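Local shape tokens:
==================
===
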Amino acid sequence: MYFYTMEEQLPLRKIIHVDMDAFYASVEQLDNPQLRGLPIAVGGSESRGVVAAASYEARKFGVRSAMSGSIAKRNCPELIFVKTRFDRYREISKQIRKIFFEYTDLVEPLSLDEAYLDVTHNKKGMFSATKIAEEIRQSIFDTTGLTASAGISINKFVAKIASDYNKPNGQKTVPPEEVLRFLEQLDIRKYHGIGKVTSKKMYSLGIFTGKELREKELEYLITHFGKAGAYYYKAVRGIHTSQVRSSRIQKSVGAERTFAENLTSELFLEKKIQVVASELVTRISNRKVSGKTLTLKLKYSDFTIQTRSKTLPFYISEKSMIVEYATQLLYQEKLQNSVRLLGVSISNLNTGPKKEKQKEEEIPLQVQLELPF
């Protein structure tokens, strides 16, 4: 069991993070055998748009999601662009989640292709979380023909890192007694919540691995990284008590459109707002929500992004009102450049009362008795 600084002891948890392998691209290769083994990019095009997903064959050439289509094509001249089919991805995602619920009701989806599962107390009475992950991955393959990777550990933070360890089509278990050693040997770039900018700053301070991060005092990290420093201090010590929640509060709903040619006039963009607003209303209707905050997103020809927001004293969901306020935001200030993408999103949703955020406890990771994973 684990001993905590708090008087109350918390039970050992067994958390699995399941992540589908190159999900969108793998679905396209599954449905079109002619694409198998070839470098493909889902979304975008050779001259426009942004890559939504890349096959592993394309990743070898440095093609990544969120990369512009032109850069992706430059990195991989043989790259094949495929249109997104979200209805198909959602269809398969439902099949995968059905498998999850065969083992536990504590399933927290992060997206169509990944989720956390708390299998501490599972429906099949299995003792080994490692074995559960193996069964789930095999069942996913038998049902969909797609492969998945998994990470298994004592909390969501470590499980998510572990799921990347043996990708694709693999899994890694980090049992309680190995958590600290596992975190210490990782490059700090592997830590979720440490991006490119922060990692460069850490490098400049002589922090390259978890071991070096753990050697820093809390006060030192807060001095250099503000409130995030406290998070890094906990993370490297395996402190993460966030529960797997079967229902996640949605924070926003949005839609956007990348244009075939850059637009330089607000008049042309007004017409695009109408189109994007129609898609947004469909998504709002499907989710049965409305919101108070409307945000207009503009991506310029130099790929810089500008957002303009307006918070209203009432909830809206009708297209006419969304168009009205999005148009106001469009004319709020002059365009900085020609526009290649326009998006509209609505947030501050009426999704019900927010639950009080659970306070993370200061939990030193000390193992006295091992419980098999």
Observations:
- The chain has 13 helices and twelve strands.
- Residues 102 and 123 are 7 Å apart (CA to CA).
